[in-house]
Amino acid sequence: MAQEGQELINLIKANTKIIQIISYETLLIHANLANAASELGRELYLWDRVAGIKKWDTENRSWVMIDEDARQPERPFSFFDEHKDIILLLEDFHPDMTENQPQNIKRLRNAAMGGNEQNRTLVLSQPFRFLPRELEKEVHIIELPPPSYEDLEVIFKNVCESFKIPIPDDPEQDLIEAALGLTIMEAEKAFSLAYIKSGQLTSAEVPLVIREKENVIKKSGYLEYFHPKEELKDVGGLDTLKDWLAKRGRAFEKGAADFGLTYPRGILLLGIPGTGKSLTAKAIGNLWHFPLLRLDMGKIFGGIVGESESNIRGALNIAEAIAPSILWIDEIEKAMSGISSSGRSDGGTTSRVLGTFLTWMQEKTKPVFVVATANDISQLPPELLRKGRVDEIFFVDLPVEDERKEIIKIHLQKKNRKPDDDFDLAKLAQKSKGFSGAELEEAVKEALFRAFDEGRTLRDDDILNAISKTFPLARTMHETISEMRKWAQSRAVAASSKTPEPLDEWQNDNIPKLRQETYSNPFLKAKEK
Ligand SMILES: Nc1ncnc2c1ncn2[C@@H]1O[C@H](COP(=O)(O)OP(=O)(O)OP(=O)(O)O)[C@@H](O)[C@H]1O
Ligand SMILES: [Mg+2]
Fold first, then answer.
1. For residue 282, what are the CA distances in angstroms to 136, 228, 370, 497?
2. Which CATH superfamily is domain 226-396 in?
3. What would the pLDDT profile of 145-180 be if each residue is shown by its tens digit?
4. What dotted CATH number matches 401-529?
C-alpha cells in the first residue's frame, strides 16, 4: 500500500486534475487521501450522493458535515470551482457518468482543464473500473491491490483486540496467509467468524478462514476455488506432458530460485475432445499442492460496459494474492471466439479483456501458473499462440494402443476391479482404436451396466461389446482430427511421445454424419478462408 500512497502524493503534486482510484477499500482510500492532504498542505473534502459534502478534520481524524444539501451530482463541481488548495473525493460517482448524463461528463472534462495555479485535484473512487471514453485521456487510474500480508497482520491484531484476546507478537503465519486475497472487511469477517466458531485464532483455524475465502471467491461469479480429487496417476498416457510438469514443478522447491530456475508461467493444452485436458489441469493442483482457481471466461463478460475489464483484473488480482496458485481457464476459445469481429459487435470489450489478460501473462511476477485448455484451435486468437505467452503449447492427441491400455486400467481400478488379473487389457486396447479417454471410460461404465443387469461379474466381453457399439468421435470427425494434427505439428509439442495412429481407414466411411462433424466444421472452414 505504501507504494500506491506515494504514487498518489506524486500525482497530486504533479497537478493531475482527476485521479480515479479503483478499490473496495473505502477506509483505505480515505486514509491514503488524508495522508496525502496533510503531506501537501491541502484540505480534503468528500462528496457522496447520500451525505452531501463533508470535510476531513485532520486533528480528530474524522469527517465533519459541511453541506448536506449538496447531494445532487452537479453540486460538488460548483464547490470544486470555488475552492483552492483542495482534494475533493467523489465517492462512487460512476452511476452519474454514464452516457445518459452528458452534463456530468462535460463537468468532469471542465474540471480536468482547470488552471494549475488553483491546486485542485478531483479524485473518483469506485469499486470497479468504469470510465466514459471521453475521459480516458483526462483521468489517471490507480488500482489498489488487495491487502498485503502486513496489512492482514494488522487486521488480525485488531480482531484479537476487539475480542479481548491476547494479541500475539508473531501471529501464526499460515493463518494470516489464509486470508490473502480478501479485502479488509472480508478478512475481518473471516477472522471474527473463525474465532466465534472455535474460540481461538491459531493454525487450527486455517480451514475456517479458507472456507470463508472460498465463499467470497465464489460470490465473484467468475472464479471458483476448486478441490480436485484427480491426481496425475489418474491420467493415462501423455508422458511428455507429465514429465514436463514434474520437472517444471521443481522450480517451486526450496533453493530452486537461487539455482536460477524461474517459475513456469503457464501452458496451453490443445486437442481432441475427451482426451484428458481438463483432467490434467485438475491434477496439476494436486501435483504442486497449490490452490486451483477455475476462471469462467464466459462470466467475465458482465453486463455493464467496462465491467468485463474490471472482472478480469479482479480475477487476476485474486490469483496473485493467493499465489503460488494455479489459474485454470477451461475452454478458453469459447470466450475468445469472434475476437476479430468484436471491435464491431461489443465495442472492443472482448479484445480489451484479452489484451489485459495477455499483458498480465507476459508481465506477471507472482507465481500464478496458467493452464488454459481448448479444443477448437480455429477459434483461438493468434496473440494467445504467440511464443512467450505460455511456456509451452501442448497438443493432446488420441491415445495410442499402449496408452489406451493404461486408461482402461485406470478406469477399471477406479471401479475396484483387478485389471491385471481379470481382464485382457491388450485385447481391449487393440479393439478400441480411435477411442478417446472419455470414450474408454464410457465403455467401462456401459459394460458395468450390462454385467450388473445380467447378475454376474464384469467380463472382457462386456467391455468389448460396449466398444463395438460405439462410434468414436475419431471416426466421425477424422477429417477435422487430421487437420488438427497437421496444424499442431508445426506449432505445438505433442503431449505424448508416441506416434499417433493413422485414421485413414475411416477415410471413405459412409456412416451418416452431423453437420458439425463434416467439412463445415469451423476448423476446416477457417482454413478454407
Ligand atoms: N488420458 C486419460 N486418462 C484417464 N482418463 C481419461 C483420459 N482422458 C480422458 N479421460 C476420462 O474422460 C473424462 C473427460 O476427459 P476431460 O474432461 O479431461 O477431456 P478434455 O480433453 O478436457 O475434453 P474437452 O476438450 O471435451 O473438454 C475424464 O474425466 C476422464 O475420466
Ligand atoms: Mg475439457
1. 40, 6, 12, 22
2. P-loop containing nucleotide triphosphate hydrolases (3.40.50.300)
3. 888 888 899 999 999 999 999 988 888 888 998 898
4. 1.10.8.60
